[in-house]
Amino acid sequence: MPKTVVQEYERAVIFRLGRLIAGGAKGPGLFFIIPCIDSYTKVDIRTVSFDVPPQEVLTKDSVTVAVDAVVYYRVQNATMSITNVEDSNRSTRLLAATTLRNVLGTKNLSEILSERETISHYMQSSLDEGTDPWGVKCERVEIKDVRLPVQLQRAMAAEAEAAREARAKVIAAEGEQKASRSLKEAAEVLTEAPAALQLRYLQTLNTISAEKNSTIIFPLPIDLLQSFMSRQES
């Protein structure tokens, strides 16, 4: 009676005269088969990863984006993966691509860009539910890249630049408003104490002379000029 060995990461599904033998899949280790009566299929139960091809998706807000993802899955029931589906690997890949299009079609562009982790978890649960009858366990789904049209990228960049310029103008306007209030308060203080204005004149002259300027502008009080004008008229 021939003997066969399967590895630790493999299981053997045995059929005897076309019927599945009792006891489920065999392995790992050594098992015996009856020639011309038994047939078996080895199933790899290690985790498998594959890339979902880029999918052209029309989002909920009518924007076309190209999205690709990576899926990790493994066979948790070798018997079901052989008896319930013709090719569990191919079926899982096709279902992953379809699920990616269906899920992203219900999201806005902003949600796709900002909620990748939530979308990945939802895709994982949907795939796990769909592949459970095939004996396949979906372990992880990750969205790799979201590619936007070039024109949309330029429009978003222009919008972001305009928003930054608007914020800069608002900040500058707020600064000017605060500065005008401070100048108003300073003018009120100088009005209450005329001697303080003369001290400010002297401080300004000191600052100008420290810079080694050849020209110095000295302000004259208006009251002094008015007194000279009144004398000339008299």
The side-by-side strand order for the widest beta sheet comes to 3-2-5
Terminal CA distance reads 142 Å
Taken from the alpha-carbon principal axes, the silhouette is rod-shaped
Order of helices and strands: EEEEEEEHHHHEHHH
Question: Strand content of the residues, in percent?
Answer: 25-35%
Q: Please provide the count of β strands.
A: 8
Poorly predicted spans: none
Largest sheet: 3 strands, antiparallel
The value of Rg in angstroms is 40 Å
What average pLDDT do the residues reach?
A: 84
| Total of helices | 7
Helix content: 40-55%
Helix/strand-derived class? Answer: alpha+beta
Organism: Magallana gigas (Pacific oyster)
InterPro entries: Band-7_stomatin-like, Band_7, Band_7/SPFH_dom_sf, Stomatin_HflK_fam
GO cellular component, one term: plasma membrane
Domain Band: 1-160
Structure description:
- The protein is α+β, with helices and mostly antiparallel strands.
- Helices cover 50% and strands 25% of the residues.
- It has seven helices and eight strands.
- It has helices at residues 78-83, 88-104, 109-114, 116-131, 150-192, 194-210, 222-233, and strands spanning 3-6, 10-16, 19-20, 29-32, 38-44, 48-58, 64-75, 136-147.
- A three-stranded antiparallel beta sheet has the order 3-2-5.
- A hairpin with a 2-residue loop joins strand 2 and strand 3 (19-20).
- The longest helix has 43 residues, at 150-192.
- The chain is rod-shaped.
- It comes from Magallana gigas.
- This is Band 7 domain-containing protein.
- Residues 1-160 form the Band domain.
- Belongs to the band 7/mec-2 family.
